[in-house]
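Thread amino acids onto this structure.
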């Protein structure tokens, strides 16, 4: 979309695209539309100050030479709305020469560095449902979308270097989301699978101790979720299922804040008054005390059978990078706000990265955040508006990333 009066812009467009040019608004369905916000190309974050407009209407796509994704909570039950920017298909042309002021050169140089070749794919299913995803291209216009590499009039299969799942939270995860995730793994065949918060820790959670009736009794004991032995045994079985669907390819479990629930439970000695879990906990405490970096979650799973060698537990202080992206950080380690990191903090701390923890699909330049495999309204989120999404990240061999969100058990239109 370009300005009505910018004749020189229209003249510069290739004839094959001219029939698609328009200016104004377009409704794609009742939940997503194209909007005009006339964002300055120099604006560092094109979504600044615009969240309220998605809150008031629908998910909004608007033009910017940057690709940005911001979820906007508006309900306890419903999917969030999104602010989505497009990227562009034109070469960068910013004021960076000496004939402009130093401030304009500074802004122009930042904008040039942040310039993204790309676009947004929207698959409209019906009047309510849609799927969307960003696509990034190189300077030659080549790009990958859902496993297909496009180069001019030719296509070939792309390699999925890594699939980073939304926080797993086994034992509490949504069965439909897990089933669809397995379907994605079979279809896309990632070279490696990265899991955040695979261990949920509901059997030893310190959070439910604060609400012994409403949460520990009703949500844990009454649902038979209080047994550590069962959580570990079932988790070991789930890892076996993942190993089957991955056909022996690497599965990486990122050290995450829910994994620390077990270590905290052991170190605080809470098991001393928790007889159903005492024996299991005592075994794991002895293991953890044997030497540094002994992970009680891994040891707990291996009480019920040796894990395959391709299943690897990343250490808390470990780097694991693929195509320049840091994949070994959960996103819970920062210096402010009680462990809840913003995208800006993740970008400063890790640079190019794909993290979890916040349960939201987000994009800020080369910093990505995945969603979660939990149901949308777990008991501990009651009363909170939710921007959670069932979103996984796909890191392609071109070094580009796509976020794909599961909606009502579907991850694409077809």
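Threaded sequence (414 positions):
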């Amino acid at each position: 979309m370009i300005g009505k009066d910018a004749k020189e812009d229209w003249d510069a467009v290739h004839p094959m695209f001219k029939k698609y040019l328009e200016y104004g608004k377009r409704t794609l369905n009742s939940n997503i539309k194209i909007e005009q916000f006339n964002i300055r190309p120099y604006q560092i974050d094109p979504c600044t100050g615009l969240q309220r407009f998605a809150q008031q209407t629908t998910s909004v796509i608007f033009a910017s030479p940057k690709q940005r994704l911001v979820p906007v909570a508006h309900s306890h039950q419903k999917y969030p709305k999104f602010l989505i920017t497009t990227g562009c298909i034109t070469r960068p042309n910013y004021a960076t020469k000496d004939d402009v002021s130093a401030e304009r050169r500074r802004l122009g140089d930042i904008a040039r560095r942040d310039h993204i070749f790309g676009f947004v794919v929207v698959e409209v299913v019906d009047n309510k449902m849609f799927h969307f995803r960003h696509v990034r291209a190189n300077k030659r216009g080549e790009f990958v979308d859902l496993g297909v590499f496009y180069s001019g009039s030719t296509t070939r299969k792309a390699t999925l270097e890594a699939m980073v799942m939304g926080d797993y939270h086994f034992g509490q995860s949504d069965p439909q989301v897990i089933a669809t995730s397995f379907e994605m793994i079979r279809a896309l065949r990632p070279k490696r699978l990265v899991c955040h918060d695979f261990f949920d820790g509901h059997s030893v959670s310190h959070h439910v101790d604060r609400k012994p009736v409403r949460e520990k009794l009703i949500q844990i004991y009454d649902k038979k979720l209080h047994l550590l032995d069962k959580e570990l045994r079932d988790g070991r079985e789930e890892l076996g299922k993942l190993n089957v669907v991955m056909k022996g390819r690497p599965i990486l479990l990122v050290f995450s804040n829910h994994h620390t629930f077990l270590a905290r439970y052991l170190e605080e000695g809470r098991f001393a008054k928790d007889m159903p879990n005492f024996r299991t906990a005592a075994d794991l405490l002895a293991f953890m005390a044997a030497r540094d970096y002994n992970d009680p979650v891994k040891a707990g799973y291996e009480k019920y059978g040796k894990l395959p060698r391709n299943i690897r537990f990343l250490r808390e202080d470990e780097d694991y990078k693929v195509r320049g992206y840091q994949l070994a950080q959960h996103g819970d380690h920062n210096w402010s706000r009680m462990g809840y990191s913003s995208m800006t903090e993740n970008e400063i701390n890790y640079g190019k990265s794909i993290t979890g923890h916040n349960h939201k699909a987000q994009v800020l330049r080369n910093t990505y955040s995945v969603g979660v495999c939990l149901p949308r309204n777990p008991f501990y989120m009651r009363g909170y508006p939710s921007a959670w999404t069932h979103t996984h990240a796909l890191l392609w061999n071109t070094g580009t990333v796509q976020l794909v969100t599961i909606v009502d058990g579907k991850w694409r239109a077809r």
